[in-house]
Design brief:
There is one protein chain. The chain is of the alpha/beta class. It has two domains: about 5-15 and about 255-420, MOFRL domain (glycerate kinase, domain 1), CATH 3.40.1480; about 25-255, 3-Layer(aba) Sandwich (Rossmann fold). It contains 17 helices and twelve strands. It has helices spanning about 5-20, 20-25, 25-30, 50-60, 95-105, 125, 135-150, 155-160, 170-175, 210-215, 225-230, 255-270, 285-300, 330-340, 370-380, 385-390, 390-400; strands spanning about 40-45, 65-70, 80-85, 115-120, 180-185, 250-255, 275-280, 310-315, 350-355, 365-370, 400-405, 415-420. The strands form two sheets. It has a six-stranded parallel sheet with strand order 3-2-1-4-5-6, sandwiched between helices. α1 (about 5-20) packs antiparallel against α12 (about 255-270) and α13 packs across α14 (about 330-340). The two termini are about 15 Å apart.
């Protein structure tokens, strides 16, 4: 791969992240929110929450107060809105205490007050306030099992909502009768508002039976207290049509599609025809095989586009963990792609998480070069064995192709590009 292609892949990733950064995407929407007669209380949760709070302080004309919770090392400097950091993806005591304080902050408000809720991906784990009768430790057990199960984000969040005291519309219920405006950065395929951070301000159409079905489908060994709660009608969330949502407005301010479009513009400027596949779900290794097939069809037959082509996709894939290695879903995708292509056609690729953290490691993702497979063979790096052990991080670490950005303070989930060069 030429240095130009490596540079282009990184420029496309940077454009995708930049389009969803709160400093860019939040001010235009904030200008449309009329200041209230009373107080403006800001609460929020997610990987972008601190950067969103900083943007509110800079651009909102009324005095603000409140607090937001974000992932460790995802903070940003603020003066009037407190930023609390907690654990993600497995919740911890800091997230539990922050969620208690968020609920407390919106108690006792009047119709003259405004709650600005700043919601982004990751908020579900960060607002870790278990329902009454369920301990944080019991919720952690369920969450860890779900993360390893291969369940989709929608399935995981249906369980999380019904084990929570704040998610699934319950934050909106606590804030009533105040006006609530939730500004949301989507990290979910299809931009379902009720799934983003498990929808703390959004009506929940899922039921406790849906949550129990997910537990059964993935054979989750949930603690007795969690199962007892899910079997109780008391765990049900506020539903569409509930009058508590009459003064609630949920607004999308950034989406995965917007970031894919930003990357496509960079590709087009560089002479590559963009082919956007959209937001995808499924096992990372299976999604990689489909991408490999499309790339080969373009390279061999010029269908459905004549190369040079940039295949672009987002969404949130999953990894059913069977090994004991390191790595997230993006590195897993890229390693599967490397094994499927074996250097075919001069194809290169990038796969990164837009929040800057792929899984629980320190990298955003990695880059695949046309000679990745050959370089691994020459260096004695057994890519197939590493793949079998879910150890994609080690594979790309040994090849020197990890991408480390640090926290980006936004999150529109997975970002993937495959560059298919011009046929010769």
């Amino acid at each position: 791969m030429s240095d130009d292609h490596r540079k282009l892949l990184r420029e496309m990733f940077d454009a995708a992240v930049g389009a969803a950064h709160p400093s860019v995407c939040l001010p235009p929407y904030l200008a449309k929110v009329a200041p209230p007669k009373g107080r403006t209380v800001v609460v929020g949760a997610g990987k972008a929450a601190a950067a969103m709070a900083a943007a509110v302080e800079k651009h909102y004309p009324a005095p603000v107060e409140g607090l937001v919770v974000t992932r460790y090392e995802h903070g940003a400097p603020t003066s009037r809105i407190e930023v609390v950091e907690a654990s993600h993806p497995v919740p911890d005591a800091a997230g539990r205490e922050a969620a208690k304080r968020v609920l407390k902050a919106v108690e006792g408000l009047t119709e003259d007050d405004l709650v600005l809720a700043l919601i982004s991906g990751g908020g579900s784990a960060l607002l870790a306030l278990p329902a009454e009768g369920v301990s944080l430790e019991e919720k952690q057990i369920v969450n860890k099992a779900l993360l390893k199960s291969g369940a989709t984000i929608s399935e995981m969040n249906s369980v999380r909502k019904h084990l929570s005291a704040i998610k699934g519309g319950r934050l909106a219920r606590a804030a009533a009768p105040a006006r609530v405006v939730a500004l949301m950065i989507s990290d979910v395929p299809g931009d379902d508002l009720s799934v983003i951070a498990s929808g703390p301000t959004v009506p929940d159409a899922t039921t406790r039976q849906d949550a129990l079905a997910v537990i059964a489908k993935y054979k989750i060994e949930a603690p007795a207290a969690a199962l007892a709660h899910l079997n109780s009608p008391a765990c049900e969330t506020p539903k569409p049509g509930d009058p508590i949502f009459e003064r609630v407005e949920n607004i999308l301010i950034a989406t995965p599609q917007g970031s894919l479009d930003a990357a496509a513009a960079v590709a087009k400027k560089a002479g590559f025809t963009p082919c956007i596949l959209g937001d995808l779900e499924g096992e990372s290794r299976d999604v990689a095989l489909v991408h490999a097939g499309i790339a080969k069809q373009i390279a061999l037959h010029g269908q459905p586009f004549e190369p040079p082509v940039a295949i672009i996709s987002g969404g949130e894939t999953t990894v059913t963990v069977r090994g004991k290695g390191k790595g997230g879903r993006d590195a897993e995708f890229l390693l599967a792609l490397t094994l499927a292509l074996e250097g075919f056609g001069g194809i290169s690729a990038i796969a990164c998480d837009t929040d800057g953290i792929d899984g629980s490691e320190d990298n955003a993702g990695a880059i695949m070069t046309p000679d990745s497979f050959a370089r691994a063979q020459k260096a004695g790096v057994d890519l197939k064995a590493l793949f079998a052990n879910n150890d994609a991080y080690t594979a790309f670490e040994k090849l020197g192709d990890l991408i480390v950005t640090g926290a980006t303070r936004t999150n529109v989930n997975d970002f993937r590009v495959i560059l298919v060069p011009k046929r010769v």
